[in-house]
Design brief:
Layout: H1 7-10, E1 37-45, E2 48-50, E3 52-59, E4 65-72, E5 78-85, E6 91-98, E7 107-115, E8 121-128, E9 143-150, E10 156-163, E11 168-176, E12 182-189, E13 195-202, E14 208-214, E15 221-229, E16 235-242, E17 252-258, E18 264-271, E19 277-285, E20 291-298, E21 308-315, E22 321-328, E23 331-335, E24 340-344, E25 347-354, E26 360-367, E27 376-383, E28 389-395, E29 398-399, E30 404-405, E31 409-415, E32 421-429, E33 434-442, E34 454-456, E35 461-463, E36 468-470, E37 476-477, E38 482-485, E39 489-492, E40 494-496
Length: 502
């Protein structure tokens, strides 16, 4: 599943723009143009630094931003870490959010963060052990969806857990809707360990108003990664569908359009050759009413074979393909110290935003070509309205004794009020070997002044992934999730930056 999810950290197998007139914008204040910067952030509690893994970043109504990460609390439990930044990237406050009095092995982590109309924030994710005595209790081993509401200062207002399947459920994205409620998507697993794509509509207190689960259908399983409210008051969600295999399943793109009541208007699936796999972490509605799905495509059948790359799939309002492009670097061969090795070079998109000129900014990870390896590094690129690549850059810090990159990927990105881009990624502090947040705020051309941490990206060519439309025919279930209060709490921490910033 997506590398930025906790599956990358814990080994769990779980896994923008809406037309301006329908976006629910928090109360605004006067803002000043954003500056450019590259900064690291560390979670410090009691003079001890705890590692951070990036999840989400969003611009806020006051010209700053809010960032979400996964961390381990002082007692070793997995929790969320939220930091509020001003327009220059200086921290204003930071909080750990989760459960702190549960047995080892429990966790509560968010993967989605959005500002709400009241100036607060909504976090969506999943938990083991941070539930009630009746639903997702400690030591049950049951995974539940988790939503936490914070006020404008990061204090917890309410927290709810949702069990939408006997085998567990997870939330991958949460957004506020124009009626003041919330929408959450993810997955729900039944007693047979078969997974379906989940969407929940909630009121302003997190109470379920309606729920839909698509699939499973026979051996075909599915899940949602992202959702967007659309200009007609409905919703569009994207994710993947697959058939389980003894190895990693070959996933294909799933897109579903819902009306405002949650009724399915259409469901489309897009798949390539039998040996290919596609992933779809992000979707936006575009300015003309269509949709853009972003992710990655892989047609390699063995190590060192071509090709893999970032994927953009442009759909019209009915889910029909208008254009599709993958961005690949071909095959690169190198000597790894023992023998010659070849690797397919590409990129992965984790987030996409439409820009004011009708183009798209994408963020994720690319592959750096070294003499003995192809390490992943944070990648930001701009394409025009037809998907033609305009510019791309790598952003990373290096371990000075060797020159090797310490930074690996951007988990999320957002547009800044000054017309630039802010991306949140992963890097390492080579002085203490702790993982830290890597925040890069650029101008509209992707640059950060004369910063030495901005690097030319590996050359990519545009290729046709040859995806075709298939009918997923996933059955729709409407059973309402079991919902309980969560004993989640917020704990203030300290924050520190590290050297090597721009």
């Amino acid at each position: 599943m997506k590398r930025r999810n906790l599956s990358f950290v814990l080994g769990l197998v779980l896994s923008a723009s809406v037309i301006a007139s329908i976006l629910l914008t928090p109360a605004t204040a006067a803002v000043t143009p954003s500056s450019t910067y590259i900064k690291n952030y560390a979670n410090v509690l009691g003079n001890v630094e705890y590692g951070l893994f990036p999840e989400d970043v969003q611009a806020t109504s006051n010209g700053g931003s809010i960032a979400l990460a996964f961390t381990q609390s002082a007692n070793g439990l997995g929790v969320s870490w939220v930091v509020k930044l001003d327009s220059s990237g200086s921290p204003q406050w930071q909080e750990e959010v989760g459960c702190f009095s549960v047995p080892p092995g429990a966790y509560a982590y968010g993967v989605s963060l959005r500002q709400t109309a009241d100036g607060g924030y909504i976090i969506g994710g999943q938990t083991i052990g941070c539930g009630s005595k009746q639903t997702c209790p400690s030591l049950s081993g049951i995974v539940c969806g988790l939503i936490e509401k914070l006020d404008s200062g990061g204090k917890l207002v309410w927290a709810q857990v949702y069990l939408a399947g006997a085998g567990g459920s997870a939330i991958t994205q949460t957004k506020q809707t124009t009626d003041g409620g919330f929408l959450a998507v993810g997955s729900a697993t039944d007693a047979n360990q078969s997974t379906g794509a989940l969407i929940l509509k909630l009121d302003g207190r997190g109470n379920v108003q309606w729920q839909k689960k698509l699939g499973p259908a026979g051996s075909t399983q599915a899940y949602f990664n992202a959702v967007q409210q659309t200009s007609d008051g409905g919703y569009v969600a994207t994710g993947e569908f697959y058939r389980p295999t003894a190895t990693t399943p070959r996933t294909s793109v799933l897109v579903v359009k819902f009306d405002s009541n949650g009724d399915v208007r259409w469901q489309q699936a897009f798949t390539g050759a039998p040996s290919a796999a596609e992933h779809a972490p992000s979707i936006i509605q575009t300015s003309e009413g269509g949709y853009l799905v972003a992710g990655n495509w892989d047609s390699t059948t063995s190590p060192g074979t071509c090709c893999r790359g970032a994927l953009l799939l442009k759909l019209d309002a009915n889910g029909t393909i208008q254009w599709q492009k993958a961005y690949s670097g071909g095959v690169y061969c190198f000597f790894n110290g023992y023998s010659e090795t070849c690797a397919a070079i590409g990129a992965v998109i984790y987030s996409v935003r439409q820009t004011s000129d009708g183009g798209y900014a994408v963020a994720g990870e690319g592959k750096l070509k070294l003499n003995d390896s192809t390490p992943p590094v944070p990648w930001l690129a701009k394409v025009d309205a037809s998907g033609n690549l305009l510019w791309q850059y790598f952003y990373y810090q290096v371990y000075q004794p060797t020159g090797r990159p310490l930074s690996q990927y951007f988990a999320s990105s957002t547009l800044t009020n000054g017309g630039g881009y802010l991306a949140l990624g992963y890097t390492e502090n080579y002085n203490n070997l702790k993982t830290e947040l890597f925040a890069v705020q650029t101008d509209s051309a992707g640059l950060v002044g004369a910063c030495s941490q901005v690097h030319p990206a590996t050359s990519l060519s545009t290729i046709d992934p040859a995806l075709t439309t298939v009918a997923p025919a996933l059955p729709v279930q409407t059973t309402i999730a079991v919902q309980r209060n969560s004993p989640s709490k917020a704990l203030s921490t300290s924050v520190s930056g590290t050297s090597g910033q721009c």
